């Protein structure tokens, strides 16, 4: 278990619907918090990696714009994208820049301002994140794709709509406590089950919402991290994998192979297994996505994910608390910001700064962040 | 001078106006050539980094699409962007992934298919690569920005339109010999000087053209490179810097500060100076850009760039041959592909495979690749 690169600062804007400012201001909220948290100034930062999916806001090439606004010229900067997993891809790239010796301190900035376009426009753009020749022209959308995953899981393993609803109830319970979440209300099992259908079996509360938001992480090499931070959080394991962009090219739909492969890599690099994880953030863009994550990450055997939520094992106090910040289902899902927000939640947990949702004594945490419908999968293991 | 990461394969599609196939097929042309050149199969490749600016073609998140088509699942993949310097940003990121120990062999794929949109649409998108709040709404376009640089250089140093035209004449001479270039014709000094004005003092031949194209580089760590390649080309120095996105935020317009800073870094890392470079590829999106590069890279003192071209010192046989493949002015400029194409030219030179434009005994080469109007600057030094 090597400790070469650490996270020494983390920040996040509130995630909201319809942010009134520009992307500069949105990102500044997260950046200011991270810089203060790390106890440094922009001049200490050797490079910036911006994580964002294009075409939601009009500004192209945001890295250059943000570097200027945040006082990060003339340090190098660029943008990375792997759809909804862009934030953790940025973290992986920053790890490489630091461990290779190119830079000592790198800031990872994830953001998305989705409210400049209409819901229908966002839907169309998300469709074009799937194959525009063979799939998206036929009406495939994110809810429809994940609905197919849910149907496949139901058919093979007997999972039910109520199992999915239980996941949403948990998200509401913790979302209520997260002051940066879009949705801060508990929802009952009946409300989830009786909501309008979006793409059967997924109903309104089974789906996360578009949002505007930013997250920011500051990474440093071992020497600088020990020198600058009273509580560095180390990157113990990194896994990353891909799968076909076309869903018709997949062998099965009852799980995400990219998550399985990435998890194996991350566990191997960290020298730990699923049983060693104290707290996890998983990519719950839809309730079925969290359930599949339980299995793909090895928290449950294939087909047994529903058992975990039925028994309450992914609540605080359970075997493996998952998404104690309310997850994407409560927080909202500002594409490029999401991975950074997930990592921030685990950083706070490992520092003992989790407040009302602190997992007592959490020492090892995991982040699972998916891009597109299982096209890109990143798994990160963090430790004190 | 460390030799940790090498380029073991390089490929390029023809650069053309109006490619008839999809981005899959366009990229495949470059990928096939690089894979054959490196003597490996897609299964040997541990990760792929795709370099592309968005909004030219309809497909979003091209990394996932290309990984599937090229047989690169389940290996990790993602997209990087720094406008016209995306290709060399991808190389920098791949260097980090390899030297950090995350991967042994990484493919860098740069491409752009610009012909799916009209020239006017391309112009509008390029404008939105500048600041959409303070500059692009007022009509700033790439030729207009570089025209301001030219005027500033003229005013301060007495550089003339004829100096710029001499650069275009050189580009035509070498472009004629490059079978992958869009424009393969010599142009006379009179033709360049008498062409229609685009943005004074820049005339038609002073400006590169949009194009469709792809470039591909295969990078490996030292052990694999020595084992797999009879002629690895080592990454000796890497420099990268940024400048304000708004040109109104710049201290002067007679050079690009990001290029100066990146060059200093690259020379320091490689332990060489401008006088040690045998052959260079510089980002000549406009003739003035090549002239400023002479100075920003230290081939000439500030204000003395015009002397180099007047004396023919950047021709084959001169002090420092520049853009012996015809440069962007002859090849065309398919945004994401450009940096990879520049690196490929230097790789061929260092292997002695330059054909009619070989610089005898070339041992150290340099690539200068700029994103936006000096927002992003990458300088790479390569050696045998």
Automatic annotation (TrEMBL), chains A, B:
Start and end residues of each Thiolase N-terminal domain: 5-205
SUPFAM superfamilies: Thiolase-like
Domain of life: Bacteria
An annotated Gene Ontology molecular function: acyltransferase activity, transferring groups other than amino-acyl groups
UniProt keyword annotations, A-Z: Lipid transport, Lipid-binding, Transferase, Transport
Segments forming domain Thiolase C-terminal: 239-384
UniProt cross-references to InterPro entries, sorted A to Z: Thiolase, Thiolase-like, Thiolase_C_2, Thiolase_CS, Thiolase_N
Class in the EC hierarchy, top level: transferase
Any one biological process term the GO annotation gives: lipid transport
Enzyme Commission number: 2.3.1.176
Protein name (database record): propanoyl-CoA C-acyltransferase
Organism expressing this protein natively: Desulfotomaculum copahuensis
